[in-house]
Amino acid sequence: MSVLAAVLVYWIASLALNVWLANRYNTRLVRLVVPAIFGITILVVWEGVVRGLEINPVLLPAPTAIGVAFAGALDTLWVDFVQTFVKGALSGYIIGCGAAFLVAVAVDRSPFLQRGLLPVGNFVAALPIIGMAPILVMWFGFDWQSKSAVVVVMVFFPMLVNTVQGLQASDHMQRDLMRTYAASYPQALMKLRLPAAMPFIFNGLKIASTLALIGAIVAEFFGSPIKGMGFRISTEVGRLALDMVWAEIAVAALAGSAFYGSVAMIEKAVTFWHPSQRGQS
Amino acid sequence: MSETVVKAENLSLTFETNDGPVHALADIDLEIKKGEFVSFIGPSGCGKTTFLRVMADLEKPTAGSITINGVSPEEARKSRAYGYVFQAAGLYPWRTIAGNIKLPLEIMGLTKADQAARVARVLDLVDLTGFEKKFPWQLSGGMQQRASIARALAFDADILLMDEPFGALDEIVRDHLNEQLLQLWAKTNKTIAFVTHSIPEAVYLSTKIVVMSPRPGRIADVIESTLPTKRPLDIRDSPEFLEIAHRVREGLRAGHAYD
User: Fold this and answer.
1) Which residues in A lie closer than 8 A to residue B80 (C-beta atoms)?
2) Which chain B residues touch A182 with a CB distance below 8 Å?
3) For residue range B27-59, what is the model confidence (pLDDT) as tens digits?
4) Do A273 and B137 touch (CB under 8 A)?
5) Would A61 be classed as within a structural domain?
């Protein structure tokens, strides 16, 4: 009981500290410190509640238990990370987004493709990934290639739609201007359409970055070599080693956030001129 | 001074819309000579912008003929015979001011050194030296519009087509830019076609004022200005100026008489 009381006191104290900080200062440091305090508070409360109420570790292991599992299985986690994230998700992401980009440029040029290909893309996007994954595993084998294929299918359509829309984002006047310069199609594409499309393209890239990891993990549930994050999660659940499952989830969360964050950072550098990015320090 | 730059004969343009045909331009006959400053004035829907766009080959006439420098508008466009200034500055936000002015030069394949020299020259012409590295959204509306004029001047076309370039600016900025535009015109001896709906602006700037009336868009009156070439801003209070302005107003009113 005393543990629970201590948790409550800590929670109220950190909440008060955050409110005080947020109201009092608005500096860069405080904007980083406030969410950090919030995150630490969640971990402390979680730990305290698990210990205080003596919750079964199969239902919910304490953060320290997850930490111990994490630190004790670094080699395994690294192998899984490379297998799922680097080989499966990242390769599929690059192939899928790259292909979608090229198709989008072709679609934009040809009204025939626009009418013919976009509905097919829509159809593919509507296929449930849970149904597609086992088929793709049959086609491309148990190793990372099939995971990559699942990721390609998942990221292709959002990227395609965003890029097509982005290529149409330049306004009439800007296109008329290109016409008055007698600019060729590649010139207009490189100097106007693509730069104007960048905010949309990065929107697609960000959506795809979260989809890619989900796709790669889920696909491993339908067959994989004896490594990979999805494989580990499904087998460790079977052994009731939930601390290991949580450790994999932590890896997935870290990798996913870092991936999204780096795409967002590149976006900031490329589309600095867009109203949504201007004036943000 | 007698070389013909623009010659339109019986020019008509009809847009087919769902509500039936719209006669944007009907039987336009007009000649613009080299070095003239021609204003097109009229209420909205009179076809003044459409005529400018026909000259620029952004719209195709449906009847009649038009030549620019003796060739079709399409050939004139492809030989980069004109610079076009739109209603809004339309600068590309991802390029600096210098980058925006370089845009047509890059497309036309000029050397880097030539580009830099031209950018410096036109920035000086529009009084924007020192702002090369700024982005358009960091400048005021008047400065943006001046940058867009610099962009149209950069490749040194003989014809400048301007579609209400100062329409969105306040009176004071507008006066200032009008004065600068006249100086620029005197310095460069370009042929300028200028669309506006301000009578004082048209009278102050032009050597020739084309008054247009709507439905169908046609020319109601063509007024040759008798004002001297050198025009200080206070010429707008002179009796001569007021007389021309009066004639423009009469022309506009006549065009409206039937509705």
Assistant:
1) 181-182
2) 77-80, 107
3) 888 888 888 889 998 887 788 888 888 888 888
4) yes
5) no
Q: Do B84 and A192 touch (CB under 8 A)?
A: no
Residues of A in contact with B88 (CB under 8 A): 173
- State the sign of the Cα–Cα–Cα–Cα dihedral A76, A82, A85, A89: negative
**To the nearest whole angstrom, how far is the Cα of B17 from the nearest Cα of chain A?**
19
Q: Is A194 on the interface with B (CB under 8 A)?
A: no
Give me the CATH topology for the region B4-81+157-256: Rossmann fold (3.40.50)
Q: Do B77 and A176 touch (CB under 8 A)?
A: no
B110 touches chain A (CB under 8 A): no
CATH number of the domain at A225, please: 1.10.3720.10
Question: pLDDT tens track of chain B, all 259 residues?
Answer: 468 888 888 888 888 888 878 888 888 888 888 888 899 988 877 888 888 888 888 888 888 888 888 888 888 888 888 888 888 888 999 999 999 999 989 888 888 888 888 898 888 877 888 888 899 988 888 888 889 888 888 888 888 899 888 877 778 878 888 888 888 888 888 889 999 888 888 888 888 888 888 878 888 788 888 777 778 888 888 888 888 888 888 888 876 655 4
